[in-house]
Every structure is written in C-alpha cells, then in structure tokens.
Amino acid sequence: MAQEEVIAQLPAFEDEYQFNIDETVNEIDFINDDENLDNLFFHRVDSAQIVYQPRRRRAKLIGKYLMGEMLGEGSYGKVKEVLDTEMLCRRAVKILKRKKLRKIPNGEDNVRREIKFLKRLHHHNVIQLVDVLTNDEKQKMYMVMEYCVSELQEMLESVPDKKFPIMQAHFYFCQLINGLEYLHSMGIIHKDIKPGNLLLATDETLKITDLGVAEALEPFAVDDTCRTSQGSPAFQPPEIANGLETFAGFKVDVWSAGVTLYNITTGTYPFEGDNIYKLFECIGKGEYKIPDSVDQLLASLIKGMLEFDPKKRFTIEQIRKHDWFRKKHPVLLEWVRLPPKSKDDEDIYRSMTVLGYLEDLHFGTPSEDEFDEQLVPETIDITNQITPAEDGVTVENSETMDTKGKPSKEMKPKKRKKGASRFGFGSCKQS
Amino acid sequence: MPLFGKSQKNPQELVKGLKDALQTLQNPSKDKDLKKASDDVTKILANMKVMLYGTAGSDPQPENVAQLSMEIYQGEVLKMMVENLEKIDFEGRKDVVQIFNNLLRRQIGTRSPTVEYICTRKDVLIALMKGYETPEVALNCGMMLRECCRYEALAKLMLNSEEFYDFFRYVELSTFDIASDAFSTFKELLIKHKMLSAEFLENNYDQVFHNYQSLLNSENYVTRRQALKLLGELLLDRHNFTTMTKYISNPDNLKLMMNMLREKSRNIQFEAFHVFKVFVANPNKPKPILEILLRNKEKLVDFLAKFHTDRSEDEQFNDEKAYLIKQIKDLKAPEES
C-alpha cells in the first residue's frame, strides 16, 4: 500500500522508467488521476518516428483516385477516403492485401464473391461498387465504393445509452428494410445484417455493406434454402444456432434485422453469452426479454421478427405492413449526430481529407528520396514549382518580422504555396 | 372581398372560394366571370400552398393544415382540382400538384388520411391517369400519380383498373416527354410494391403480356428498348418467379428474343441477351423451347461466340455468355419415350 502511494506521488517524468509499455493498462489507469502523467505518453514515443519521418501529405494516386486519410480498418485491410480526380467525386476505397486475405478462412473467395454481387446491385440502400483496381506487383486490390461518413455502430457507440431515439431508429430501419427487400428480390441473402454493416452516406442514406458472406440463390431455385452461414454470432437465428442442415435464407436476414432493430432501440442485445457456445445455447432456446421501456407496437414488431419458428417469422412484406413501420413517429429526443473522429477533432462534419493531398499534387515539393515515379505524374516540373514559392516565403518572412509576428491576411495564401513545410506540425525540426 | 389582405383567409373561406371559382370555370356563364374566376383560383391555390408548406420565415400551422384538409375532403375538392386542371393556369397547376402531394403525404400516427380518402374516391385516380391524354396537364398528372404510386393501396387500385391498360398506349405517345413520363409511372406501378405487382402479373398474365408484346414490337426505338429492359428486370426479380416460369415456357417469347438478339441496335441486342439467357438457363425447358434451341444449336453457338466481343471489361457478361454457349452445346434431344 505504502509503496503504491509513493509511486503515485512521484513526478511524472520519473514514472517513465518504472512503467514500461508491457505494464498493463489498468495499472496506468490507477495512477492516472495525476494530470502530469499525460506527458508520459509523449516521452515514450520513439523519437525516430517523429524526427526522421516528418508527417507530410504526399499525394498518392491509384489510377485516377487521389488518396486521402484512413476512414477505418477491418480484418481485410484499410479503408481510405479518395477523390476521383476525373469526376471529382468523393469515394472510399477498400484496400485488400492478398497476404492478409490468405490468412482469413475463405478470405479470397469471399472478396471475389462480394465483388461479383456488388457489380450487379444498384439500389440507394445498398453500397455501390464504383471501380475495382488491382496492383499485381504489390499484391493489392482496391475496391472503390460510394463514400460513407459513418456506420450505425459508430453512431451507437458515441452516445451513452447506445441507442437511437425512436424516430431516428425508425428512419434507419425503414431504409434497411428497403435495401433488404431489394437484395432478396435479386436473390441475394446477406446473412450478416448488423449495425456494423450499415453505413451512412452524408445525407444519412443508409447503405447495406459487406456482402462477404452473402449467398446468391440459383436463378431457378424454387425456394430460398441455404446450407451455410458465417455471419456474426449475436445476430444469428435459432435455426443456425441449433445447427440445422438447411434453413430458409430470407428469414435469416429478417431475424438479423430484428436483432438490429432491438439493438438500436434498446442499446442492448436480445441474446448474450460469455462465449459463442453459451450465446448459441441462449439463441437456440429463443428466449429473450423485451425491456419495459419499449412500447407495445415496437415490441410486437420485434416479436414478429424474432419469432423462433422461421415459418411464423415475419416476411419483409409483413414488416412493411406493420403499424410501427408505417407510423409517423413524433420527435421526442434529440437526433444522434455524427460523432467527431477523435476527441480533439473539431471537424464535426468530417470534411474531405483529400484536400491537403490535392494541394500537394498540384503545388507540392516532393523530396528526392520519397519520390515515387509511378504514382506522381512525371509531367510536373518540380524546379519551376519551387522557385517562385520559395521566393514568396522569403519576402513574406521579412515582412512578418516587420509587423512583429502578425502575419496579415493577404500573406496566408502565399504561405500555403510552400508545399511540404505548411504541414509542419508533425516535424520536430521546426519547433 | 380582397384576397390579398393583411388578414389571412381561414381554411373554410379558401375552400369555399376555390369551389365557387372552379364551378364558374367549369360552367362558364359570362365571359367576364371567367377571367376573374381564373385569377381567383390561382390566388387561392397559392394561399393554400403557403398554408400547407409555410413560408421561408414561418412553419405551417398544424391546426390550419388539419382544418384545410378536412375542408378539402368534405368539399370533394381534390376531384374538382384534378378534373379542371386543364382550365387552371400554369402556376395554378403547379400549385395543385404541390397541394395534392402534400396532402397525400399527411400522416397521423399510422394513418394516412388522404390515402384512405382517395381509396374511396377511385375516380380521382382514374382522372389522373386520363390526364396523360391531355398534353397540357400530362406532366402535372404524372407527378401526382407517382406520388400515389408510393402507397400500396392506391397502386393496387390503379393496377386493377381498366385504365391501367391505357398506359400501353401512353408510353408510345409521339410527344417524347409525355411518353417517358408515362413510362416511369408505368414502371413504378409494376416495380414499387413487389408482392402486389407479383400478384397482379400472375393473375393478369395473359392480358398484361398480350399488351406488353406490342411494346416490344413497337416502331419506336425508345419504347422498344425501355420495355425490353423493364421486362428483363421484372423476370429476374425473384418475387416474379411464377410469372418468369410462365414467360419462358412460351416458344413465341423465345422467338421474339432471338430476333431481338439480331436487332440493329446494340443496346437492344444487349438487353435481349439478358432475357434470352433465362430461357437457356432454365433447367426444365419445355419441349417446344428445347426444340427451337436444338434446331438452332450450331447457329446460336456461332452467334454467341461473336456476340459483343468488345465487352471484355464486363466479367459478368462474359461469364454468362460462356455459360450459355456451354449450355447450348450440351443440349440433347429428349429421348423419345
């Protein structure tokens, strides 16, 4: 006890030597009431990362797409924002590395199948695949898709009770059903409907994504019988949890949509378990409770969608005709807005991250060692670009000194031209 | 009575004024009255629109909206507005569309009062569909019809009316914008409510496809191409499985598609391919279909091998084409039993 107190009282910079990276997070949290400790993290960053690799926005083009910042990361690879430099359209690109794909069971097959499906799907509630590019040398594949700002899961996690106000949940749910109906009409069973696979476009149009484990019915199959499922366990229906040989595919999606509806309106899951066996045992029994806070109308829709017997379970058509679906819900609580990307990010609108790269593409000063002939168009004459810009800055500096460090507004655009150094915040050399 | 006074007229007055003015337009007695009545209609419609939509500075007042809709239902004004649309001036027509669509979207809890109201006044829908016959109001009617299409109950009434079959005529009208507007309404009716249209197509198969045939044989390139594309969409929608099976069992349909594969237009060839493939992919081909395919086996294989070879980018198309060629090559005459 006494020893721990002593540690807590020690000045932050001395702690640095006692708490190595391999110490558990909890122990750091334990003494984290001391604000000075925040500095600790700065001290611990490997200096090589900061000093020798100044963060620069290097323009990188993949085909006609100019790369922006990372939007997210999945098991398959990164997703980045890009700009279509011909159409000037904001897009997202899923970068798939063959090396990574091989490690995932059915990884390559799933991707190939997803691309095949997406190519023939055109609906505003299903993500649109715009382009597929491959780089055999780097063993990479790029899936260019519609740009989406967020996903339902991220929005849910940003609020304390992890749920949406009824009106907002209804708004998303209706779109989910529209998208699902379309998928089913095209003979596609998604099999992995969950808030994490529902994206939102900038106008809050919901887009069903990730058809990696989806299945297309044979065009002449008489019904929707399926045999396999690899979807997320918590969203699987009893017939799958109980390991039935065959099951009706469309009803699987209805069930998952039901769990999704339960989740976005209550902030909890109908079925839970410490591990997949317990979870499946729980789902297999099909017993769950609807919280009292859920009104009767919604409860009856959820019950219809989470009906144990797939034959009795609602069809998309029945969902559509349900009163909760058709009802105009009153605005009672505040709409959940897009959360900021990170705590200190002030850009609540998530504006385009390609801008900096775009500037670099047209006005940038590539340094020799990083210059990638393949990616940066060779036609840009580097020397001609630098000279006037450098001149501008020199003049500007002398003027700035005259006005005692208060740069006038007119100078700002000039300063921008200087290329690399305008993003100097990552470099320690300058400070 | 000044129409644009400081004090706004209340819903009752507006509706009464509109009814009177419309009646004058309907049965003109003196020439003088006509001009004034027409101006009145335009002004009242503009006022009604403001009452329903509000203005830039102020939101619409719920009590006014509720009262106005009540008055409109009770006074049978929707029907009057639609039937006299031709006599209302340009701006007024646009306002009618906006008023109509706003009322239609009105919802109280799970109820849509205007939709329920129109369900009992089928003649409003009929009048709207007939609107395609009057070029001046065709597009206005089209906008209202498509709003109606969003509601299954109304779509059902329209599909099951005799007037639905007039669409087969409207989509071929010589005025291009009206024909395309009619086509989009027609398409919406057949696509929007999957179960409804599946049921409709099944129950009215003969009548619908007899008429549809004339679209596919149309002199008009646009009609032919659009109709063919829609046919492909309808047949490949799983909701229409029964209809699809029926369609691909008819040898005449196969012959038509085979002829369309050889059309001059590449776009039509391509669309025809997507219907043709269903005939070939069918694992249970009826005898007449099989016979036609067998008779043309060699020719078809040759033809498909050379068919749109420049579409090398389109993987799905090439896969499907390769599949069809294989299927046709493997075709065997059924053993005589």
TrEMBL record, chain A:
Subcellular location: Cytoplasm; Nucleus
EC number: 2.7.11.1
Disordered: region residues: 388-431
SMART domains given in the database record: S_TKc
Gene3D superfamilies, sorted: Phosphorylase Kinase, domain 1, Transferase(Phosphotransferase) domain 1
SUPFAM superfamilies: Protein kinase-like (PK-like)
Signal peptide: none
GO molecular-function terms, A-Z: ATP binding; metal ion binding; protein kinase activator activity; protein serine/threonine kinase activity
Keywords: Apoptosis, ATP-binding, Cell cycle, Cytoplasm, DNA damage, Kinase, Magnesium, Manganese, Metal-binding, Nucleotide-binding, Nucleus, Phosphoprotein, Serine/threonine-protein kinase, Transferase
Keyword Membrane: no
Reaction equation(s) it catalyzes: L-seryl-[protein] + ATP = O-phospho-L-seryl-[protein] + ADP + H(+); L-threonyl-[protein] + ATP = O-phospho-L-threonyl-[protein] + ADP + H(+)
Cofactors named for this entry: Mn(2+); Mg(2+)
UniProt-annotated binding residues for ATP: K94
Composition bias type Basic and acidic residues, residue spans: 401-411
All copies of domain Protein kinase, residue ranges: 65-325
Gene Ontology biological-process annotations: apoptotic process; DNA damage response; establishment of cell polarity; glucose homeostasis; intracellular signal transduction; regulation of cell growth
Entry superkingdom: Eukaryota
InterPro entries the UniProt entry points to: Kinase-like_dom_sf, LKB1_c, Prot_kinase_dom, Protein_kinase_ATP_BS, Ser/Thr_kinase_AS
A GO CC term attached to the entry: nucleus
Family per record: Belongs to the protein kinase superfamily. CAMK Ser/Thr protein kinase family. LKB1 subfamily.
Protein name: Serine/threonine-protein kinase STK11
Automatic annotation (TrEMBL), chain B:
Pfam families (UniProt xref): Mo25
InterPro entries assigned: ARM-like (IPR011989), ARM-type_fold (IPR016024), Mo25 (IPR013878)
Gene Ontology biological-process entries: intracellular signal transduction
GO molecular function list: protein serine/threonine kinase activator activity
Bilayer-spanning residue ranges: none
Similarity section: Belongs to the Mo25 family.
This protein's name: Protein Mo25
Originating species: Patella caerulea
Upper taxonomic lineage: Eukaryota, Metazoa, Spiralia, Lophotrochozoa, Mollusca
